[in-house]
Automatic annotation (TrEMBL):
<feature type="transmembrane region" description="Helical">
    <location>
        <begin position="281"/>
        <end position="299"/>
    </location>
</feature>
<dbReference type="InterPro" id="IPR029787">
    <property type="entry name" value="Nucleotide_cyclase"/>
</dbReference>
<keyword id="KW-1133">Transmembrane helix</keyword>
<keyword id="KW-0732">Signal</keyword>
<feature type="transmembrane region" description="Helical">
    <location>
        <begin position="368"/>
        <end position="388"/>
    </location>
</feature>
<feature type="transmembrane region" description="Helical">
    <location>
        <begin position="214"/>
        <end position="235"/>
    </location>
</feature>
<protein>
    <recommendedName>
        <fullName>diguanylate cyclase</fullName>
        <ecNumber>2.7.7.65</ecNumber>
    </recommendedName>
</protein>
<feature type="transmembrane region" description="Helical">
    <location>
        <begin position="305"/>
        <end position="324"/>
    </location>
</feature>
<dbReference type="InterPro" id="IPR043128">
    <property type="entry name" value="Rev_trsase/Diguanyl_cyclase"/>
</dbReference>
<keyword id="KW-0812">Transmembrane</keyword>
<keyword id="KW-0472">Membrane</keyword>
<feature type="compositionally biased region" description="Basic residues">
    <location>
        <begin position="545"/>
        <end position="554"/>
    </location>
</feature>
<feature type="transmembrane region" description="Helical">
    <location>
        <begin position="336"/>
        <end position="353"/>
    </location>
</feature>
<feature type="signal peptide">
    <location>
        <begin position="1"/>
        <end position="25"/>
    </location>
</feature>
<dbReference type="Pfam" id="PF00990">
    <property type="entry name" value="GGDEF"/>
</dbReference>
<dbReference type="InterPro" id="IPR050469">
    <property type="entry name" value="Diguanylate_Cyclase"/>
</dbReference>
<dbReference type="Pfam" id="PF07695">
    <property type="entry name" value="7TMR-DISM_7TM"/>
</dbReference>
Length: 577
């Protein structure tokens, strides 16, 4: 926990440094455009305007402000229509780009009123008409072309359901704007592309594995990607039409993304089995924010905006606490989860602060979040991969244990059935039964009997492990399965197996004199399928056992095919049938 606390403190310091570094210097009421970047604060800059005048001509705006209506302290947290006028003096001939620092603008119109000459309309710059102005993610931009030493007033009208931040005006020279545009757009598009790619990857994982955790990860990443694509204005560029500003959709999608994040955390750390209390909290949180997100579709956007921020304030400390708690429990899936959430949480805090009156002039809050979110999604993908690796290891262990005999470490009946179902072409099956097991258990104990079976399995594996497989199908019953390349090889393989089993019998008989081996051998030529071939080998094994018992009474050995042989002649010298 001390490590986690130290990490959080470091991030707070970094966040403070980041905020200090990115804060713009602000200028007074009158702007002299003589540097690359100028920023004009929105403090008492904007005047409320009747909504019917949002697209009014300049002379009506001038009439509206003739009486010097009272300016608002800031547009932060407000809704409606507002107008501002900025006295400007230009020092050199060029095009300037004016960027209002607003996330949401339904209507935006700008006019230029020179001190000498007629006024002119500059541009409409809302999300619904950003094809008329240079494209800039997260906000709008309007060009302002001025002559050398030209002076006048810039009039700007903005209308929105909610102004999420103070709305300063930033003036960029051409070179500074293109640099700013490239940085903002490429970073945003790159981060969204990463998230969408990870979404598709996780959906592919879900299709292959049917693991619900991959689906909740896809929901978490995909909804964030779509939300930020909407908030950045990328979706409006494709589907924009009058009356529908998709930019607001990002706030509506956020609760559903957090619901997926809650379910993902619950599944990632196996909370249902290992942390039932936390599992209940995460499930109830997912249900609550899902219902809240549904209700928010019918609420005023200002309410939706603040509710989304309340959800963020709840999720940030909870996700950090989960990461630090799981890491302290040595659940190393949490290291990636915690790192990602540290980035995301720090960016969310920065974003929340920028959307408050605590600090003014914080730059690039949206970029901070979208970049941190992309890093978070990559880190959490690592957590998902660790979880899948654990699941794969568990599956392999269960698969192994369900198909491997624990005493002899050879395949069991289930694995034999799987192998038989895959057989084709040429193959041989030998059915083996160890004689004398009851005598070994009765005279030497069951531990000795287990040791005998283990030793017999080891010998069989050593002798045929490189050419075939061994399976234990019962207490002292085993099956050899050997694949051949062609049917012409089967007679030679048959002779080799008969000789091998005879040698194994000799080795075992030296340590366990009461032991013996009965076997039956069949090939793919003896039957139409593998199951029938196994049945033939089983029947021949019993014939061999019966013949051995009968001949033992008369002092004569018998071969696996049932033909009488002198005792001193070994099975490997027989020619089969």
């Amino acid at each position: 926990m001390r490590i986690g606390t130290m990490i959080v403190r470091v991030w707070v310091l970094l966040l403070a440094s980041f905020a200090s570094f990115l804060s713009h210097a602000e200028v007074g009421d009158s702007l002299q455009l003589d540097e690359a970047v100028h920023s004009s604060a929105d403090h008492q800059r904007w005047y409320p305007l009747d909504a019917s005048l949002a697209r009014a001509p300049l002379h009506k705006l001038q009439q509206q402000l003739t009486g010097e209506a009272a300016a608002v302290d800031s547009l932060f947290g407000r809704a409606g229509t507002f107008v501002t006028r900025v006295p400007i003096t230009n020092t050199r001939r060029q095009t300037w780009f004016v960027v209002p620092g607003a996330n949401f603008i339904d209507t935006g119109i700008a006019y230029w009123q020179p001190d000498e000459g007629p006024p002119r309309m500059l541009a409409e710059f809302s999300q619904l008409s950003d094809d008329l102005t240079p494209r800039l993610m997260h906000t709008q931009v309007l060009p302002l072309w001025l002559q050398d030493q030209e002076a006048g007033q810039l009039w700007i009208v903005v209308q929105a359901k909610h102004f999420a931040t103070p709305v300063p005006l930033t003036f960029y020279s051409q070179q500074a704007f293109y640099h700013h545009q490239f940085m903002v757009n490429s970073t945003t598009i790159g981060a969204i592309a990463i998230m969408l790619t990870l979404t598709l990857l996780s959906l592919a994982i879900y299709v292959r594995t049917r693991q619900s955790l991959a689906l909740t990860y896809a929901g978490y990443v995909g909804l964030h990607a779509l939300g930020w694509a909407a908030a950045a204005g990328a979706i409006n560029g494709v589907t924009a039409h009058d009356g529908l500003n998709v930019t607001y959709a990002g706030m509506h999608l956020f609760p559903f993304a957090i619901a997926c994040a809650s379910l993902f955390a619950c599944g990632l750390f196996n909370c249902t089995e290992q942390h039932p209390g936390l599992a209940r909290v995460l499930r109830w949180l997912a249900i609550t924010v899902t219902l809240l997100g549904t209700v928010m579709l019918w609420l005023p956007f200002q309410v939706t905006f603040y509710l989304s921020h309340v959800i963020a304030l709840l999720w940030v400390p909870l996700s950090l606490w989960i990461g630090m708690t799981m890491l302290s429990n040595e659940d190393f899936r949490a290291k990636y989860y915690l790192i990602g959430n540290l980035f995301y949480s720090a960016a969310l805090v920065y974003y929340l602060v920028s959307h408050s009156s605590l600090v003014s002039g914080l730059a690039y809050p949206e970029l901070a979040v979208v970049m941190a979110l992309a890093i978070d999604c990559v880190c959490i993908l690592f957590s998902l991969s660790e979880w899948l690796k654990i699941k794969q290891n568990d599956f392999n262990r269960v698969f192994y244990e369900s198909r491997i005999d624990p005493l002899t470490q050879v395949g069991n009946r289930l694995l034999l059935q799987e192998r038989l179902s895959d057989l084709s072409d040429a193959y041989l099956i030998m059915f083996i039964d160890f004689d004398g097991m009851k005598a070994i258990n009765d005279s030497m104990g069951h531990d000795a009997g287990d040791h005998f079976l283990s030793e017999a399995s080891r010998l069989m594996h050593e002798r045929i492990g490189h050419t075939g497989e061994i399976f234990r199908t019962g207490g002292d019953e085993f099956v050899w399965l050997v694949r051949g390349t062609t049917t012409d090889q089967l007679p030679e393989i048959r002779r080799h197996l008969e000789g091998t089993i005879s040698n194994i019998e000799t080795v075992l008989h030296a340590n366990w004199p009461m032991s013996g081996i009965s076997f039956g051998l069949a090939t793919s030529e003896d039957s139409a399928n593998a199951s029938a071939c196994l049945a033939i080998a089983d029947r021949k094994m019993y014939q061999h056992k019966t013949a051995k018992q009968s001949r033992r009474n008369r002092g004569v050995n018998i071969s696996a095919t049932g033909s009488a042989q002198p005792r001193e002649i070994r099975p490997e010298t027989t020619q089969g049938r």
